[in-house]
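note to self — DONT lose this again. spent like an hour looking for the file last time. sequence + predicted structure for the chain T wanted, 655 res
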Amino acid sequence: MNELIDNIKVIKMNSWVDCYFKKVLDLKNKEYTNSVLSTLLWLPNRVIYIVGKYILIFGVFIIIVAYFEIPLGVASTVAIMKVLEQIQGNLGYFSYCYRIYSKFALSSKRIEDFLQCDEIEDFLKDHCNQADTELAISIEKSNFFWGFDYISDEDIKQFKEKKDKQAKEQSNKEAGLVQSEEEDKTSANITLDDRIVLKSVNLKVRRGEFVAIIGDVGSGKSSLLGAVLGEMLYFDDSVLDKYKNVTLDFKNDLEQTKQLTDEINECRKQASLNSKTRIAINGTVSLVEQKPFILNKTIRDNILFGEDLDETKYNRVVGACELGKDLELLAGGDLTEIGEKGINLSGGQKARVSIARAVYADADIVLMDDPLSALDAHVKRRVFDQVCCGELAGKTRLLVTHAVDFLDRVDRILVLEEGRITLNGSYDELKAEPYFAKIISTLQKSKSADADNESSSEKSDSDKPKTEAKNYMSSEGTKITDDDDKCEVTWTTYWKYLAYLKYTLVILALSMGVTVIGDLITMNNEYSVLQWVKEYSKTNDPNYSGMISLIFIAFCLLIVDLVRDFFDTWQNYIIEKRLFSDMISKVMNASIPLYFDRSQSGTILQRLNTDQPSASKYCAGHIKWAVSMMCQMATTLAIVSYYVPSILILFPACV
């Protein structure tokens, strides 16, 4: 459901609503089936709970009468029955504790998997702030990778079960029982060298230098920024040479692969501890991600990001990032609330907000992971001029980009191929390289096209007199999210809920009727026990046949309780299926600007995962529970008042 809500815009744009609606209902039907099976597995516990109660009571009374010959009265009998019921109720919590333990074991397994992941190796990174140092970034000749996937014992168990199933299918194919299909010939065998993302990286960046990083897709450009930030794991050359040709078979031998990865990790960690500092960063760092990180707050809050507001600086940054026209179109200006994950902003707007945040942070080193790719051509040129070469002038800048039309304006260019820095130098130094032949032709075409398309706009801009920086700060903002957590549940709401149930009310009524019958049988059993004790106190002759008949009535109570469970399961299935189907249909067909832009995904998921089960299961269950409690209170009061009429005097005071 989380992925469905996050990608609802794509689903609607491709008219996949009906398709995904059917898929969600199919998954929900499987969940209903598992829920029914869980109820069936819980029946033995109910049998033991109901039958065991009366067997315990009757056994205690028979032992008291037959072996100890202790005289029993009505008062002592009622006291013994209530004590035994209290003991049984406490023992019933053991099964509940087992369910809690099962959930705890599952949660512990997930936490364990998370904690088993590789730790960030901060000891290999030296972060300082020294103004007299020439280098801003220094990476000694190093190898980096993102770590191995953690393989748990449960993963190996599931892998073996899958392999056994595949072996059976293969044997059936060979026997001709199953039509042979084209097998998947793709291999999951990789060597350790294939897992190393950055190889023999040796990088020196001077303070104030503007470096562009280019390369093919998957060459390691974004990973290089991750290495600068210290987010990647170091791999020593000695360990790499030792295990370089080791094959990791994630497809056919997961257990052996786990042993190998554990062994390699131990050697790698030991080598890392003995290694010297591999990364040196001099100054503060800010990052512009390729996928912008946007808070569910106002545009101003996203740009400031916790920094103090400097109006002059803020207006200058907003203008340089070409956000002025966007703020003018928004009703609340820079105080307009941004939806979750920036859903009400375009890709270019989110990129410019992220760039403005990095510029306003005024860090010494700015890492930019291809933020210009989301911008239009003319906006990209202006942002590059006003930000990369303007506001950030004098800062150390690393720009990952596919926009080759700006390469002649940077101080240095790094070319990455398969995780290695193959070319390193200025544009004039590298333009003679064969790799740059295509880049140069693209650069010339881009410049001529920009000159033709924008000559008129530049001429008109030059004719306009320069004005002072605008004030982009708004006094009043707009809020798109609705505060729908505050609601009032009145009796009208309950009547609407009952009207929505329609024919399901018949099942609810039958379940309540069976509940009342069960309470009456319980009252009859307790009354019969008291009658048996009363006769025994008079005749001093225990009538065991009467006790046996009471056990038979207890089994009748068990049947009634099972029938009630059947009605409960049936009713919950119908209500939940109908309510979920209606809710998910309305959610998926809701308007994006009127609903999804105004509601956080967590709120929508809470409605579907928490509020919907409460309305389908717990509400009807609480109604039956209230009726059952009233019946039990009435039967208990009737029995006690029959034998002790004076108790009725205290009843008005209790009410």
